[in-house]
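Quick one:
INPUT:
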């Protein structure tokens, strides 16, 4: 299978692939509870595998995913979910481990640090000769930080054009149910992309039974499948590769003050 993971290629391979399509994908995610049935790395596993699919379909290279750096005190299941005590119990941890202040930095400081880290990544990838850099946010709250980083990056008249997406927002017209936390959508995506760690037998057979740390959507998560996930993945990949191609072919549309993201 065509290797598109940047870190696994030798210099001549990198140059050939970059010259054929100067696009870089940078997956960003987190480590977070995604129910008893999913691996805790779902967000980043999903983003990385989706980026690989995009690169194989439309060209480009995929950089190693960024697992760390986001604010751990806000927008995180272990810290903020209504059933966070049950999540902590499921991890064999005391809830106090995630009490406010446990990161020893304020949420604002964590945001600022993460913003700097994303900008660092954008400029580093730009230096390696890419014309379009795509941040793939597997953890949905990170899309706001990714878009902010893109805006700041674009202000510096960079050589590359940056863009950010999560995936579900691109196909809402086709999949109105898209975008959940550890539910039918996310579980199906991971089953299609990297399903080795998914175990649906961990779910109660009764779809109306309470679930720990899972966003309820329809269809029920018990009906998640690789087949549904594959249809969704293909739709996302088609939208992404078209958007990337437009940025390569029409860079002026995406430069200047107020340019669309």
């Amino acid at each position: 299978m065509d290797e598109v993971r940047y870190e696994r290629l030798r210099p001549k391979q990198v140059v050939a692939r970059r010259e054929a399509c100067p696009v870089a994908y940078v997956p960003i995610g987190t480590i977070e509870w995604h129910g008893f049935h999913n691996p805790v790395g779902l967000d980043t596993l999903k983003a990385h595998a989706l980026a690989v699919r995009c690169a194989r379909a439309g060209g480009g290279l995929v950089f190693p995913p960024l697992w760390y750096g986001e604010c751990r005190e806000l927008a995180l299941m272990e810290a903020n979910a209504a059933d966070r005590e049950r999540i902590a119990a499921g991890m064999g941890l005391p809830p106090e481990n995630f009490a406010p202040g446990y990161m020893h930095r304020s949420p604002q400081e964590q945001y600022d640090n993460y913003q700097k880290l994303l900008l660092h990544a954008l400029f580093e990838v730009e230096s390696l000769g890419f014309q379009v850099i795509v941040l793939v946010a597997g953890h949905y709250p990170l899309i706001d930080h990714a878009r902010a980083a893109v805006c700041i990056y674009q202000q510096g008249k960079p050589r590359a054009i940056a863009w950010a997406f999560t995936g579900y927002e691109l196909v809402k017209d086709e999949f109105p149910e898209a975008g959940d936390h550890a539910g039918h959508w996310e579980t199906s995506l991971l089953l299609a992309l990297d399903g080795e760690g998914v175990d649906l037998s961990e779910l109660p057979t009764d779809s109306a039974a309470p679930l720990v740390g899972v966003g309820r959507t329809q269809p029920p998560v018990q009906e998640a499948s690789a087949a549904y996930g594959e249809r969704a993945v293909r739709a996302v990949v088609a939208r992404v590769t078209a958007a990337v191609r437009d940025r390569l072919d029409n860079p002026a549309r995406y430069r200047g003050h107020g340019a669309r993201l």
